[in-house]
Each structure stands twice: as structure tokens, then as C-alpha cells.
């Protein structure tokens, strides 16, 4: 029987399986069309309204805090004005409709029993998330249960994704870096400024100042290379993120977690094909990913 003896590794592996399921809401044209149908035209209106809708008709400030890596001005351009176009309730219906339509396109060849079992196991894992200190995970976990397997599958993936993201933000805050510094530093390590800077809304001046602060604080060398201290600290952030996200898999148990991984594999593989290779959502590069020049967007 498989064991949870490599809990951090298994936790990260499960993330790479449920994150693509969630990500259809960012990259599939049916998801975009569903937002537009309720008046949320333009990619970023749908993005900010869709992720923020479980919080209710909030202004920009809570979203700046919860989403962490976006420039406050970028968030303020979308919130709270989007709620005049579509209420949170309308937005939630639109995001679920678009996600289900996208997943239906990717899973029509799979047996219904496969989807039902995957939804049940993923939903059980999502039901074990710890809400304390995890705002986005908690509000998604509190949403009504979906009526159909694909709706339940997507909502469970979203709850787990946001729960993990909340833990990641907490680990980043503990480093003492601010959001601009975190994004700028990652783009000196393994990400791409041409995607992340416009996707997060930071100006050239804000970016340059953030890199100067990283040099002063010992995270970048004078020629803007990552220091050993920074690399070790960020590795610790990733490890802390995995530990904080391990609870659902520990509760589900080794055998059923591995079974869920098997069930999600063909679904996640199909979903990855529409995720741009350099998309700023943190997933490892996937073979068959969409073209790298696709619009910079997502989490």
C-alpha cells in the first residue's frame, strides 16, 4: 500500500494535479465567454470578480491583501466597479458555468464513473481544509455543493488551490519581503518578467525600486543575481507551503490519495494543454502547454 512517507513531495504532486483543473477558469475561452455573458468584459474584470466573488461585494483592499502579488492600483481598477456589472452571486454562477463547460470539453471521453469517483475523493479532501487563517480557502469551502460531478470537481479543486495559496502567502509574508519584491525576485530565479510584471500591474519604476531593495537586503547581488541566502530562504518558503497544505492528504490517507492522483492524471493532462508555458501560476513547465506568447494572466 502506498505510504505518506514523502508527505511534502506528495502534497506538491497533488497540487500539480488539481491546479490545472482549477486553471481552466483562467485560460479556456468558454470560461471567458461565461463572464462576458454576465457583463464582465475584458479579461481582468472576470479574473478579479471571479476570484473575489466568494468574499462578497468587497472593495479593493481585502483583495490586495488576499491575492498578495498584484499592484494595488491594478486591483483598484477592477474593484469595486465590477460589482456594478455583475453581482457576486451572478459572478459565481458564471465562473462555475464556464469552468464546467471547459472541463466537459476535456473529459467527454472519460467514463461517468471515473468523474464521479474523482469528484467524491477530491471533494472529501477539500472538506478537510483548515479554514483558520486561510481566507480564500475558507470562503470557497463554504460555497454550496455542486449538483453535477464536474461542478463538484472544479469547486473542490478551487478550494484546495486557494487553501494552498493562502498558506503560501503566509510563508511569503514571513520572509519580510513585500509583494513587488517577491515577484521581482522570482523573475531573477525561474519566472519571466515579461509575463509577471504586466500580469501583476507593477510599473517599471516600482520594479526597479523593488530590485534595488532586494540588493540592499541581500536577496540579489549587485548584478541582480540571486544570493545563496535568498535561494535558501525561498526554498524554505516552498517547504512551508507544502507542509501547510498537507492536512487534506493526511486526512484522506495514502491509499485514497494515490487513487485520486490516478483519477486526476488524465484530466489534469488535458487541462494543461491550454495553460501557456510561461503562465505565472507557478506550475512546472508542462509538455504540450499552450504557446508562451499567450496573454500573461492568472493567479
Helix content: 55-70%
Principal-axis shape: globular
Which structural class do you get from the secondary structure elements? mainly alpha
Mean pLDDT: 91
- Secondary structure: number of strands: 0
Oligomer: single chain
Domain unit count: 1
| Element-by-element helix/strand order | HHHHHHHHHHHHHHH
Annotate the secondary structure layout.
Blueprint: H1 7-27, H2 29-37, H3 43-52, H4 60-67, H5 72-78, H6 88-107, H7 112-126, H8 135-141, H9 149-175, H10 179-186, H11 193-200, H12 204-216, H13 228-244, H14 247-252, H15 254-272
Helix pairs in contact: 1-2, 1-6, 1-9, 1-15, 2-6, 3-6, 4-5, 6-9, 7-9, 7-15, 8-9, 9-13, 10-12
Describe the fold and architecture.
With 299 residues, the chain is mainly alpha-helical. The protein has one domain (10-272). Helices cover 65% and strands 0% of the residues. The chain is built from 15 helices and no strands. The protein has helices at 7-27, 29-37, 43-52, 60-67, 72-78, 88-107, 112-126, 135-141, 149-175, 179-186, 193-200, 204-216, 228-244, 247-252, 254-272. Helix 1 runs parallel beside helix 15 and helix 4 (60-67) crosses helix 5 (72-78). The longest helix has 27 residues, at 149-175.
